[in-house]
């Protein structure tokens, strides 16, 4: 992909209720070499000391309810004779399973001793049935938060999308539609074959074992506890994938039901990919950034409203705040935001990462890629 590098990054925050007015689109703020906002970092640490403990009841009830609603929607989509009811069931399934699936993000940050058996429960109810085991995120996502890796070519979850050509955005979304097919191939075909070929196994581990968007990133082989978790999760997913395909080929699972399952998983992947588009501004040129610069390259959408709870659930509408405080559980992020927004002056960097809408962020990203085309 052709990438045009620029020397600065634009920040355009739109005025909205509860959101600090933004500078005009023409205003430029250099991220490279930006010093840290010490007052913001100090306030973030001091004002949220009591918010770092996850509440198991909230996690379990939210996750289980989301999963059950999702599978109920999937059952309706498969069994309903009326097309409209089936479509509504599929929509419910996509949104609910999307929410349940996003708890994989919490798994990478929470201390497992504080949420006993949650990883196992998540993998059993969602990770294996959707072929998204937690090992594909654990050990990968933590690198995205590494101080010297964020936004560089060593970050598995970063691409300078705003500095790429316009066609990269639709390609980025189209790829997600193929996710369920790719996952079936990964676990039903590549996993068994890789047991017979050490060379193929090396490739599978490095290239096809992480939920990453950076094509340059290669994963290292797992060690310690993660190696054990990886083995059992991959085995479970392989057996599920092989069993599902065998059931389809033998007629036990009707093609229609299989197609709906694939469509729901694809829908979950597409919504997540859209959310990923607006999780950051994607304007870093590949250089290591300070914590403040990383925060400003990330996005909060704190404006009250129903839609953010659908497209950025489980605390992900506070994605910039999460980069500032990755140890705060999702159910405490809104309170952390309330405290920081009230305590910090308008001149603080904290207010400059708050945006009003998803659509505005998508338009911003698309407009930046158009500038790259003009420059090219």
Automatic annotation (TrEMBL):
Keyword field contains Protein biosynthesis: no
Keyword terms of this UniProt record: Membrane, Transmembrane, Transmembrane helix
GO biological process: lipid biosynthetic process
Organism domain of life: Bacteria
Transmembrane domains' residue ranges: 57-78, 84-105, 117-137, 167-189, 230-249, 255-274
GO molecular function, a single term: oxidoreductase activity, acting on paired donors, with oxidation of a pair of donors resulting in the reduction of molecular oxygen to two molecules of water
Stored Pfam families: FA_desaturase
CC terms in the record's Gene Ontology section: membrane
InterPro entries: FA_desaturase_dom, Fatty_acid_desaturase
Span of domain Fatty acid desaturase: 83-351
Protein name as catalogued: Fatty acid desaturase
């Amino acid at each position: 992909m052709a990438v045009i590098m620029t020397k600065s990054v634009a920040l355009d925050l739109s005025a909205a209720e509860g959101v600090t007015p933004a500078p005009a689109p023409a205003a430029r703020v250099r991220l490279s070499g930006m010093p840290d906002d010490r007052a913001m970092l100090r306030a973030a640490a001091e004002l949220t000391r009591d918010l770092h403990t996850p509440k198991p009841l909230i996690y379990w009830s939210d996750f289980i309810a989301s999963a059950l609603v999702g599978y109920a929607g999937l059952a309706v989509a498969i069994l309903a004779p009326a097309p409209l009811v089936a479509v509504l069931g599929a929509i419910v399934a996509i949104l609910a399973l999307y929410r349940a699936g996003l708890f994989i993000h919490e798994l990478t940050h929470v201390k497992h001793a504080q949420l006993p058996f949650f990883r196992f429960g998540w993998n059993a109810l969602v990770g294996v049935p959707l072929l998204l085991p937690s090992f594909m995120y654990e050990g990968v996502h933590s690198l995205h938060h590494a101080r010297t890796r964020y936004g560089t070519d060593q970050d598995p979850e970063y691409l300078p999308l705003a500095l790429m050509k316009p066609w990269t955005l639709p390609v980025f979304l189209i790829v997600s539609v193929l996710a369920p097919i790719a996952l079936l191939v990964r676990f039903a075909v590549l996993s068994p074959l890789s047991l017979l070929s050490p060379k193929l196994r090396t490739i599978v581990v490095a290239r096809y074992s992480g939920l990453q968007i950076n094509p340059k990133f290669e994963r290292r082989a797992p060690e310690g506890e993660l190696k054990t978790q990886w083995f059992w999760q991959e085995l479970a997913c392989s057996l599920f994938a092989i069993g599902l395909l065998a059931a389809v080929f033998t007629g036990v699972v009707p093609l229609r039901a299989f197609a709906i399952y694939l469509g729901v998983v694809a829908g979950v992947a597409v919504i997540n990919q859209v959310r990923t588009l607006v999780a950051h501004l994607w304007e870093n040129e590949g250089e290591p950034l300070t914590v403040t610069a990383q925060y400003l390259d990330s996005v909060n959408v704190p404006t009250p409203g129903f839609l953010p709870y659908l497209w950025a659930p489980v605390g992900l509408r506070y994605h910039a705040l999460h980069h500032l405080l990755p140890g705060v559980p999702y159910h405490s992020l809104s309170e952390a935001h309330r405290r920081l927004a009230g305590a910090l002056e308008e001149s603080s960097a904290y207010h400059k990462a708050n945006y009003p809408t998803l659509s505005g962020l998508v338009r911003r990203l698309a407009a930046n890629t158009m500038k790259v085309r003009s420059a090219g």
